[in-house]
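check this one:
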Amino acid sequence: MPDVGMLQEFLAGGQVDAAVFALRPDYRAMLLAVDGLVPGPSDQASDTLLQAAEATAREALRDRPAEQLPHVAAWREAYRAFGAKPQRTRNSLEALLRRVPSGLPRVNRLTDLYNAVSVLHQIPLGGEDLTRYSGAPRLVRATGTEPFDTAADGIAVLEHPDPGEVAWCDDAGVTCRRWNWRQARRTQLREDTTAALFILDALDPMTDEALHAAADDLVIHLTRLGPDVRAVRRLIAAGTTPDDGD
């Protein structure tokens, strides 16, 4: 199990390339490294949280479609800025909101938890197995040569991002394509995940206060997933250095 110092060192290596900030100077990434998690199937607590998220989303969507919610609209603009078509490749928040009418998925208690926080706070939020990373996370404008392991029709395939696409990577390849659209199989959360990296993606009009509130809520719920849960966070924004954060 990593200690707090190792979690801090891992997050200190995280980077957002200047080319990404040139595209969206208002972008902020909240990285949250957590260990001590005890994995398990969906339970009553995770179902209750998902029900609360569904109720909150239904109220938000009562008089307008998902794409008109402020943070969803901002992400659609960001996708268009690097050439993606948001109608075909929806950001993770919009994808979840569109599932609310039929019910959010129940996967396992860790995935259920972060999906619920994503919807409750209207923020794209991804979770990955920290132990399967090769080096630190980096958000880049892809060259198009980086490997991305995914599946098509249940068969493992190797793809590559489009040149100029915004993608999260580590030393082994792409971990999430199109900012927060689709995660790689290599680093996906598993039934035996005990250490995880969560990435919360924010654009204006989401404030730093709202971003920290989402991270606080996530940490509160994560602490119930084991008696020894430890969490370290780092906020990356334009102009920050590896020593910045909290």
Notes: The chain is about 30% helix and 25% strand.
